[in-house]
Specification:
alpha+beta, six-stranded antiparallel sheet, globular
């Protein structure tokens, strides 16, 4: 089974539970995802959509560090880190690239879907459909879920090569 298919299966299972954070964006559902990321105050969580994606990837045996070395500027708990890393390896495909067709297990980056401007949310493609993409996401209103997303909400996609290995 491809790693992307495995990422999608894990993401769908976790998103379907759903995982729910408390008022501090913490709780037993979130701790397995948040614990590897540095925080000054362990009693306070953070927006966890990118941590959800990182967790799904690592559970699918995609070997990624918590923070990729330069030139990636942040750790993988930030959407921007995913975007920078995807661009670095040529894994990122902007929505304007009409030759790219999203597939199950691709990562999907959104613009202004939670009101924070460009690159403000990330999830996992479960399946593309004619006029929408079905996704599994974490931290949409502090819980995970399965969503139907329109193309006008999408910034682009990251397709992790099955042969990618971080060394």
């Amino acid at each position: 089974m491809s790693r992307r298919k495995r990422i999608a299966e894990i993401a769908e299972e976790l998103a379907s539970r759903p995982l729910i954070g408390d008022e501090k964006k913490l709780g037993p559902d979130l701790e397995p995802m948040l614990r590897c990321f540095p925080r000054e105050d362990k009693s306070i969580g953070f927006d966890w959509c990118a941590a959800f994606v990182y967790h799904c990837c690592t559970m699918a045996d995609v070997n990624l560090p918590v923070r990729y070395p330069e030139p990636v500027t942040r750790n993988f708990a930030w959407v921007e880190a995913w975007l920078e890393w995807g661009q670095l390896y040529g894994f990122y495909h902007h929505i304007s690239d009409r030759s790219f067709v999203p597939e199950q297990g691709d990562l999907i980056i959104f613009d202004n879907i939670v009101g924070n401007g460009p690159n403000d949310h990330i999830g996992v493609v479960l399946r593309p459909e004619q006029d929408k993409v079905i996704t599994a996401e974490g931290n949409f209103n502090n819980k995970s879920g399965i969503f139907n997303r329109r193309p006008d909400q999408i910034n682009g996609y990251i397709r992790i090569d099955d042969k990618y290995e971080y060394v």
